[in-house]
Write a structure and sequence with these properties.
Elements: E1 2-3, H1 7-23, E2 28-38, E3 41-50, H2 53-60
Antiparallel strand pairs: 1-3, 2-3
InterPro entries: Dimeric_a/b-barrel (IPR011008)
Protein name: ABM domain-containing protein
């Protein structure tokens, strides 16, 4: 979550740094940023698809439940979620 005044800058950062980082990892199938404005704050969700748990670990480290942040995130984010959620995808 960011202040809405910083939302455009944060989205640009995510598009320039985070998305290419995700997509550079073998086994990343796709990566998306979801954005929702709610008054004075804007919520961001990163949605990624991976070929395996091992591919996630190549990006996130051994404990794939821990959230990964960039140093620049401190310029934008109001709060830092300590963990992420992983789900299996079925069609």
């Amino acid at each position: 979550m960011t202040p809405t005044a910083k939302a455009d800058a944060y989205l640009a950062f995510l598009q320039e740094r985070a998305l290419p980082d995700y997509r550079s990892i073998p086994g990343n199938i796709s990566a998306y940023i979801l954005r929702r404005q709610d008054g004075e704050v804007t919520h961001f969700t990163t949605l990624t698809y991976w070929s395996s748990v091992q591919a996630i670990a190549a990006f996130a480290g051994a404990d794939i439940a821990l959230a990964k942040y960039y140093p620049e995130d401190t310029d934008f984010l109001i709060e830092f979620e300590p963990t992420v959620q992983h789900c299996e995808l079925y069609s």
